[in-house]
Design a protein that fits this description.
The complex is a heterodimer of chains A (about 120) and B (about 110). Chain A is mostly beta strands and about 120 residues long. Chain A has no helices and 11 strands. In chain A, strands 2, 4, 5, 6, 9, 10 and 11 form a 7-stranded mixed sheet that branches. In chain A, strands 1-3-8-7 form a 4-stranded antiparallel sheet, with no helix packed on it. In chain A, about 40% of the residues are buried. With about 110 residues, chain B is an all-beta fold. Helices cover about 0% and strands about 60% of the residues of chain B. Chain B is built from no helices and 11 strands. In chain B, strands 2, 4, 5, 9, 10 and 11 form a 6-stranded mixed sheet that branches. The relative contact order of chain B is 0.34. Classes of the chains: A mainly beta (about 120), B mainly beta (about 110).
Amino acid sequence: DSGVTQTPKHLITATGQRVTLRCSPRSGDLSVYWYQQSLDQGLQFLIQYYNGEERAKGNILERFSAQQFPDLHSELNLSSLELGDSALYFCASSVGSLLGRKTEAFFGQGTRLTVV
Amino acid sequence: QQQVKQSPQSLIVQKGGISIINCAYENTAFDYFPWYQQFPGKGPALLIAIRPDVSEKKEGRFTISFNKSAKQFSLHIMDSQPGDSATYFCAASTSSGTASKLTFGTGTRLQVTL
């Protein structure tokens, strides 16, 4: 168990809908990362937050947004869902914001999103 | 644009054998190279990591070899066991200012047979 908690584990929703994925980082971790894992695209970085502030952005669609709250949990909001958004969404956390400098990323077990 | 290329896509190794997975990168700004192990239905778990100032790092049966000039790094699993059967991802990270992100390879599905 990495200590990173993601809810829900599974989510089935219809096209056009909006969902919210939740992530609680490991105790003491200030940085949160979101990744999307699909069969054809592999693990794709979406966005990073550090202590409530957005720090890095990857290939995140405009229909997607995220935030990190004062208690350091994070939410990823996905709207106007399309079939192609079906994927595993992972949250990771780390103590610092600079990986490899005495800080490493630990992943949660993911949320499997199915859009029908 | 795929910045970290991983091969092979799949690998079958007999129990006790050596599993070797290779990765190559293009971005010379990468300064941290971790390997993750992922079992079905689970999130990626950090296995071992290396920074470019060393050429090799060993932890138990797992070794990373790093060739900075060739921009390549590899994972060697010695005495491979059936419990090692999983998907392995190499990754690379670059840090700028106060942010960093991991760029992953496409994964290698390892099967260790009895």
